[in-house]
Amino acid sequence: MNYRDKPDLQDRLAAEYVLGTLRGPARSRFQAWMREDAAIARAVREWEERLTPMAAALPEVRPPRRVWRGIESRIATPNRGPEAKRGLWESLGFWRGWGLVTSGLAAALVVAVATQKPEVVEVVRTVEVVRTAEVPSTKMQPSYVAMLEDAKGGMKVMTYAARQSDELWFRVEGMEHKAGHSYELWGLPAKPGEAPTSLGVLPARETGTIKLAAAADQALSGFPQLAISIEPEGGSKTGLPTGPVVAKGESMKFW
User: Fold this and answer.
1) Residue from 69, 226, 236, 205 nearest 161 by CA
2) Which of 53, 93, 55 lies closest to 73, judged by CA?
3) Is 135 within 8 Å of 52 (Cβ atoms)?
4) Nearest-CA neighbor of 17 among 214, 35, 5?
5) For residue 65, what are the contacts with CB-CB under 8 A and spacing of at least 6?
6) What is the pTM assigned to this prediction?
7) CB-CB contact of 93 with 18 (8 Å)
8) pLDDT by residue for the chain (255 residues), tens digit each?
């Protein structure tokens, strides 16, 4: 894959790397690029700064007991060959089973924890000097983030837009595109009875961006929830949802 002179591709790969959805050989290859290319390393740092506060804002979730049993089993089993040489976060399979909302945000939390430098203790003339890594959450660009899913959890969508930007980034999982139809994103007003507002048609791919009608602070601030409906190709012809709503979720402010 030729990633040079393709800033959009670099940014998309950096986002997937930080979220934890870039896996296997592709992740290893990206790590090598990151060591060699300052622009890619900078894109990764920027995504870490954007997503770290998201993890900090999430409520604590107690993992199932089977997860702890799996961790204890792996720790207690010595000499497991090549698998045993890998780090804990690289080898645990339970992360892979989570969907975009749970997996993506959990991955963001993992990245936030794993990429922070631990406390370093230096001994200088028998005097301990403790240095703590700075948490980059205070540097995050104010943004709107939404997590949408269907009733069965089969389709999951994550959206992100910087507060002063008119570009909305999205990532979807489990969305089946049918010929002659499009998925349209809607803002749902807080006041009952008010009509939804179209925010744009999602391109038929897993990740991408759409242009908002104005900066996110104007285009998204009045919508506590977002939804996705199936519409005729190119979007609704009436200005209102005409097909079934297939995903819905809260839109959150991070500032």
Assistant:
1) 226
2) 93
3) yes
4) 35
5) none
6) 0.51
7) no
8) 566 667 778 888 888 888 888 888 888 888 888 888 888 888 888 888 877 666 655 666 677 788 778 887 877 665 555 444 444 344 444 444 444 444 455 445 444 444 444 444 444 444 444 444 444 444 557 899 998 998 887 788 999 999 899 999 998 888 788 888 999 999 999 888 899 999 999 988 888 899 999 999 999 999 999 999 999 999 999 999 999 999 999 999 887
**Dihedral (CA of 213, 239, 242, 231) sign:** negative
- Amino acid making up residue 56: A
CA angle 113, 9, 217 (to 5 degrees): 70
User: Which amino acid, residue 22?
Assistant: L
If you write DSSP's letter for every residue of 109-131 in order, what string do you get?
HHHHHHHSPPPEEEEETTEEEEE
> Which DSSP letter does residue 243 get?
S
Instruction: Please say whether the beta carbons of 100 and 157 come within 8 A.
Output: yes
Q: What is the rounded CA–CA span in Å between residue 241 and residue 238?
A: 8
* 108 vs 20: CA distance, rounded Å: 7
Count CA atoms within 13 Å of residue 199 on its CB side.
32
Residues 6+ apart with CB under 8 A from 191: none
Contact 229, 192 (CB under 8 A): no
3-state helix, strand, coil in the chain (%, to 5): 35, 25, 35
Q: Which two tokens stand for residue 35?
A: 């060591």
The DSSP letter of residue 232 is E
Q: Which of 227, 174, 171, 225 is nearest to 203 (CA)?
A: 171
* CB 105, CB 178: distance < 8 Å: no
